[in-house]
Amino acid sequence: MNAKKANWAFLLTIIAYFLVSVLMLFLPASVTSNLLVTNLLLEGALALPIIFIAVVSRERMGEFLGFHKIKPGTILMIGLFTFLTSPFLTLVNAISMFWVENEAVNMMESYQVGNMPFAQLVLSTAVIAPICEEITCRGGFYHSYRRSGGMVKAMLLSAVLFACIHMNFNQASYAFVMAIMAVLLVEASGSVWSSIIYHGLFNAGTSLIAYAALRSDPNVYAKQEVTAELLMYGVGVYLVISAVTLPVAFAVLIWISKHENREDVWKNTRIREKVKKDKLVTIPLIVALILCLLVMTGAMSAVIKRLVVMLS
């Protein structure tokens, strides 16, 4: 699959997301209030378009998506990499909260995750979401853009797409950074399994913290007043921690690449194949990004509400 097809897949993904979102407005509250069910619907809408176009394009799915074996030592180091990069992701999240609310916390509160079985929460956020999102973004989109040129451009563009599928500015901020870290892991290990594990561990950690807090007090986050002074303190603390942990995280990446016999990957950031180079940015991609921005700014909500009224 090339960049042109990947961009069409992204547009189809956004359209599918809208259709599922509208469909959910007509479903019973018992269904839409269930985090596992809504996650299955939305994540399915995310992953199916890229898989469909890859199948139509007759891609060898395992090879195209990057499902290669990784060594046990690599898996352990991915856990360390997750731990070392989490402070920086938290830092970016804290900076974004100067302008927007913490949407992840709002979602956890709205679904009352403190009252749901923990296994169900982990399955939803740390298994289903990472698998679907990594197959789509690091598997399909990144590898398609990678075929069309350099690693850096492919990494940045696929990170923009990963940020946009979260449909809010708060999660988009640290999702962009997380996407870059995930691509570096994929390149170091040679497998999308590494980014799935990374994504799953990060989500599991944040879900565990939120679950424990909401389990003890369902209104714990509502009671907390997030002031500018508190955010400034948090930014300062995590800035210092990140200054220490990030260099070690990149050292872990180097170790993984050597362990997987891929140390030359950092020298070969451009694929040298006799294939036609494609433009990474095309009209379908621009249209899809505009639709994402309409959702993130709230403009699309009014349109959807009017559509629901018309259909009711």
How would the blueprint of this fold be written?
Elements: H1 3-24, H2 29-32, H3 35-56, H4 61-65, H5 72-96, H6 103-110, H7 118-147, H8 151-164, H9 169-189, H10 192-216, H11 220-223, H12 228-259, H13 283-296, H14 299-311
Helix pairs in contact: 1-3, 1-7, 1-13, 3-7, 5-9, 5-10, 5-12, 7-8, 7-10, 8-9, 9-10, 9-12
Question: In which range does the helix fraction lie?
Answer: over 70%
Mind telling me the C-alpha Rg?
20 Å
Basic shape: globular
What series of H and E elements makes up the topology?
Answer: HHHHHHHHHHHHHH
Your description of this structure?
The chain has one domain. The N and C termini lie far apart (40 Å). The protein has 312 residues and is mainly alpha-helical. It is globular, with a radius of gyration of 20 Å. Mean pLDDT is 89; it is low at 271-275. The chain has helices at residues 3-24, 29-32, 35-56, 61-65, 72-96, 103-110, 118-147, 151-164, 169-189, 192-216, 220-223, 228-259, 283-296, 299-311. α5 (72-96) runs antiparallel to α9 (169-189).
